[in-house]
Amino acid sequence: MDVVEGIKRGDRRALARAISVAEGGGAAPLVAALFKETGRAFTVGITGPPGVGKSTLTGALVTRARKEGKSVGLILVDPSSPFSQGALLGDRIRLSEHFTDPGVFIRSMASRGHLGGIAGATGDAVMLMDAFGKDLVIVETVGVGQSEIEIAEVADTTVVCLQPGSGDSIQVLKAGIMEIADVFVVNKADHPMAGQLRREIRVMMTMLDWQGWAPALVMTQATTGEGTEQLWEALWSHHAYLQESGELRSKRAGAFAHEVRNLIVGRLAASVDGAMAGAVASGLMEEVADRVLDPYAAAEQILQRFDPKAPAATAARLAPRVRATVKGLHTASAAEIAHHREAGV
Amino acid sequence: MPDQTKRPIRIVVAKAGLDGHDRGAKVIARALRDAGMEVIYTGLFQTPEQIVETAIQEDADGIGLSILSGAHMTLFPLVVEQLKERGADDIVFFGGGTIPADDAAELKRLGVRAIFTPGAPLAEIIEFVKSECLKRREVLR
């Protein structure tokens, strides 16, 4: 299947396959062929802690976008297990009313060891959906804590979702995700503590002198759709601001600088892993463990011989460590299996 | 291009029709996850169209459908039909639930690749999914 031609033709299977290829590390030729077709979609990132309502809110935004005929691409990121590399991708559950809408394309992505709240290939997937012709691309991050801010590099507009009762007034002053919001959403607005959180965010915002855009604050109740209209308006006012101020271009240039750096670091990291594997094999780490050599000196030794063009290796993974297995996984005897086969199943 | 057979296997685990019993589907989802696969769970009450469209958009290698409502002779064939209609019958389609042996045999004749009934060892299900999905990728390559 020629996925590039397929994407230009609007073939959904081609887009699906292209995203898989990008996830497998093969994005370069696809991006090369399609890059000129990108840059048209409005990209929105939705981030916040687990269970805050990101998927439900995303669903409400899709409904709103479809009302005016805008086509939508969704990328929903959930974490991969560092032990088995497997993942349970469950964000679709809240979006089932959009599954068969031809104007909506939904893709779940596992983070595959990437720690910034999105997957390594999320940026590529956004570009592919953009090239496919989606008007709006929404990226929902993994449920994040405080420091996963990579979404702000991928999205034009970043929405930070918060929920009432998740801490005191100091939490909103902390560094990290509170600093990347273009729009704050306080979801579950019917909660008794919702007003308090709104006040805390307002107080934080009035302490600061904003250069350019000051984040909007929207109260929502994603399950009923309340506040969706205000959120939709806030997204597009930020979009208009980005275009009128010229910030969209400088923001995207900054994001590309970040991406290009990541591509270089990614290539170098593979060579570093190769050099590390050599050092481990030659017993250098034993010397460190015996405290004959200190870690800085070991790094220096490896760097002295480092060749960025040397064959790459895959990083040593976190040692598989099984903490729990599904009940019944190891209890079936050969006799039970044979019995089951005979029963014709 | 990197070897596409080395990507994690992706499986859609689905519940269809008016059937709220999802414990089995959750156990399978978790077991496949622990076996290193990426499992996309659709949630309850899906139609055959929704299930097949999801598998296409997710570029899934397989679909596992759980039915405990007795409607298996209606829903399984509808999914097979949808897969054929969308040109997606290379996707490994298997199922599970309280399904009598005669019905299971008929469903397999219709194109469901395997039916696992209560008591089926998880290790066997995992082995089936792994080997069938990897075979499919070899063919597609």
What do you see in this structure?
The complex is a heterodimer of chains A (345) and B (141). With 345 residues, chain A is an alpha/beta fold. Chain A has 2 domains: 244 residues, Rossmann fold (3-Layer(aba) Sandwich); 85 residues, no CATH class. Chain A contains 12 helices and 8 strands. The mean pLDDT of chain B is 93. Chain B has one domain: Cobalamin-binding domain (Rossmann fold, 3-Layer(aba) Sandwich), CATH 3.40.50. In chain B, strand 4, helix 4 and strand 5 form a beta-alpha-beta unit. Helix content of chain B is 46%, strand content 18%. The longest helix of chain B is centred in the C-terminal third of the chain and has 19 residues. Chain B is an alpha/beta fold and 141 residues long. Chain B is built from 5 helices and 5 strands. The chains are: A alpha/beta (345), B alpha/beta (141). Chains A and B meet through helix 2, strand 3, strand 4 and helix 12 of A and helix 1, strand 2, helix 2, helix 4 and strand 5 of B. Strand 3 of chain A pairs parallel with strand 2 of chain B.
Summarize the structure.
The complex is a heterodimer of chains A (345) and B (141). Chain A has 345 residues and is an alpha/beta fold. Helices cover 43% and strands 12% of the residues of chain A.
Keyword list:
heterodimer; A: alpha/beta; Rossmann fold; seven-stranded parallel beta sheet; 12 helices; B: 141 residues; alpha/beta; five-stranded parallel beta sheet; 5 helices; 46% helix
Describe the secondary-structure layout.
The complex is a heterodimer of chains A (345) and B (141).
Chain A (H helix, E strand, L loop, with lengths): L2 H7 L2 H12 L3 H8 L7 E6 L6 H14 L4 E7 L8 E3 L14 E7 L11 H11 L3 E5 L10 H4 L2 E6 L20 E4 L7 H13 L9 E4 L8 H18 L1 H35 L2 H6 L5 H10 L29 H9 L3
Parallel strand pairs in A: 1-5, 1-6, 2-4, 2-5, 6-7, 7-8
Helix pairs in contact in A: 1-2, 2-5, 3-5, 4-8
Chain B lengths: L9 E6 L7 H12 L3 E4 L6 H10 L4 E6 L4 H14 L6 E6 L3 H10 L3 E3 L5 H19 L1
Parallel strand pairs in B: 1-2, 1-3, 3-4, 4-5
Helix pairs in contact in B: 2-3
